[in-house]
Amino acid sequence: MPSTPEPAELAVSRAGAVVQDANFADSVFVSGLQGPTTMTFAPDGRLFVSEKNGSLRIVENGRLLPTPFVTLAVDNDNERGLMGVAFDPNFASNHYLYVYYTSIDGSIHNRVSRFTANGNVAVPGSELVLADLPTLDAANHNGGAVRFGLDGKLYVSAGDNAVSSNSQSLNTPLGKLLRFNPDGSIPTDNPFYATATGLAKATWAMGLRNPFTFDVQPGTGTLFINDVGEGGWEEINRGQAGANYGWPMTEGYFTNRPGLTQPFFAYPHGSGTAAGNCIAGGAFYNPPIPAFPSAYVGQYFYADYTNNWISRIDPSSGATSLFATAAPGPVDLDVGPDGALYYLARGAGQVGRIAYTASLPPSIAQQPASTLVSVGTPATFTVSASGEPPLTYRWQRNGVDIAGATSPSYVLNAAQLADSGARFRVVVTNGLGSTTSAEAVLTVTSNKPPVATIATPGAGATYTAATNLVFSGSASDVEDGALPPSSMTWNITFHHDTHTHPAMSDTTGIASGSWPIPSVGESSANVWYRLRLTVRDSIGLTHTTYRDVLPVTVPLRVTSLPSGLQVMMDGQPFAAPHDTTGVVGVIRSVGVNSPQYANGRFWAFSSWSDGGAQSHNFTTPGSAATYTATFVETSGGSCYRIQSERSDKWLTVDTAGKVVAGSTTQAGGQIFQLVPNGTRYKLKGSGDAFLAVVTNQLAMSASFASGESFTQLPCGYGGRNRVGFQASAGSAPHWKETTSGGPIQSGDGGNGGACNPNDAGAWEGFYLEPAICPDGTTGPVCGNGTVESGEQCDDGNTQSGDGCDATCHTETSGAGCFRIQSERSDKWLTVDGAGKVAAISTTQTGGEVFELVTSGARYKLKGASGAYLAVVADQLTVSATLNTAEPFTRYDCGTYGGRNRYGFESSTGTARNWKEVTLGTPIQSGNGGNGGICNPTDGGAWEAFYLEPATCPAAGR
User: Using CA atoms, how far apart are residues 841 and 818, in angstroms rounded to an integer?
Assistant: First the structure.
């Protein structure tokens, strides 16, 4: 598992990219960076480089300035730290720049802030915090790039924090590309502004894992997002407002995933230059004055950190071409004002510069450095030069040519005391001229290098997560004797497969210590930690040793009963059984979607073998374990033939698989089974085909997993079941027969008009006529929320016996648990210290969990404490028993922004409907609302509330 051992003494790394075209040359632009993460050129040509430790460094006129622009207090564990910088489009006048870093203010979280520049330093006290992202659990998957779009908005990439479900949740900004106004406010035209909560309203695109870098093309505004993959693929995603790139449901290219956006380009994991493991840099080549040939203009350059290559892709055709190899750990790319391509070499702590050198004489970017070595050890001198190829090198010692020394580096294999004081330089020549480097002086000492010794952990040591990696060691020197702790520097690196992540940064001045091994983060088992100890003696000689600490692993299996259903491991779907390996102590997650369709049957989740909820975390145990999800067969839902109100014809499926209103008789219509999927429905046709939206047309082309979930909207009845259907995507997602006899449209077929057959611009109502399902089951089915012919339901009494309640839901002791959000204030209902219910929580997780207990045709609401909701002095109060609790009528207020809205009405009072009369105070019922229905813009109307499903506090229901 561990990689090739390192040499005892670490040589100085250098930029050394090998460009495929000989007319380009790589050179070192600047060295001496500590853990660089990203870089950005200022409009005035200075280069700003973010260092992981919180320092924002400036390179001016090719020189790294000693004083940072600003030094931030950051948590730099693992992938945390200072990760991004961007300049305001009006920087020349307002001097604003924006940074993304891991703040330790209050809690450990990522933050976006604005600073004001005063020359080469930030104005003291000028930090303006624009956004504080949620508190971090894991130390990886932070994202961190910031860029301005051509629309003047600030775009920010946020990783999923190693919790894959974050990427698909509109209750968190994690796993997203975010879009802000320059002052940190959220634009109201963001695609999810109306449906997301809190800071997630800034979401511009979702379904991302770890978008470490992205770039915006000058002139066109094209935005490419580099998303670091998990199991098999690295992605370049073309930025689109409202796009969902599919993580964790999919990675790389996919089929049959309606509503998800394919990557523009993806390359597989592996070795070589056609594969990689970490896409970490990207830049469009569109400088004000191009210095590369015209074939490169408009191309997108991207880099892989682990395989050390840089490639380019045509944004129009998708054609790719390898550009350079052997770039030491490139984490970012940028195009300079001089038209050269710059890359940030994390592995070398340098910025490399790749320039087009045709017709240029040689120039030296990195001079050979003076060096101190112990007698008998090698001494190496290196130069970095550019110019029209071919370049020739001629090393000299004390002004005299050294025979055979014709490479960019010269090595004196075994330096002797007589070599001390020798001066070394190199003459670089091409067909247009020559240049001579500065001289470097060699110092040779008879002193021996010190010796570093790691005492603990011992050879063969192992670890489990959520423990401490305890280390200790010593340092000795022939001349100095035992060296003090001040001579010792420790470092821990986390290795994953073929690449690394920083763990504990360089720590000097201790002989022993410990570092907490996290339990949240990377879930793979092909990992280990490398502990390094470097010691330095009194004259500057060093020695480094290291010790690898391997994980304790166990086999894990996730399966289903019956076998073959879909299970999720760490948010990714697999066909059961799925076998994997886990590191003991690491927190993992399992889950299932319910219902599922397999082998011609529908299955509903029943339980997990470990007693956990449908989706839940577990700590990897110390021995092999199997997690089994048990399902029970379910009816799936009622079957219908569907009639278009506009044309009076019945829906059928044509030879191309499109859904059209083509049958003049009910008997000729397609039978559709409406399968409940949460609060929405998937529609099953003949065989195993499910309904999807393909190029804005209804098509029978999906599996159950990839089928579209439609919201069913009441359109009024008139004695018949008349409804509208709404997809989850598209600018006008409602069903409509736009062209008579043509495929039913969804995505651009309808508009905001509701169910109006006389309005050609409105979306359409359809009639549902019950039918026998093709598999022979007798429909209709109790539990679909509709009272249908032949179906027995309660009529408002509280007696059980027929299995259905008054609104034809499956009869149960409770109708589920929910957190409830006020539409008027956008906050979540909580119970204050006086037991009053008020909308005061800004986060969903801070809201009270209420269980809706059926009471005839109405509901009683049970709080987390076990007490029930009553109306006391016209205010909602959690103070009653089941017998004394108020029964509330729940009204369907329709759908807004893709979410279901409800109103509640008590049985007493002159204005009995719930309403947040005064923001932040107890919810009123009795005098709080009036006859106005669910109108958030009408201050006199009673209010609608959003119900978000939650796990019940008791018994984990």
Answer: 15
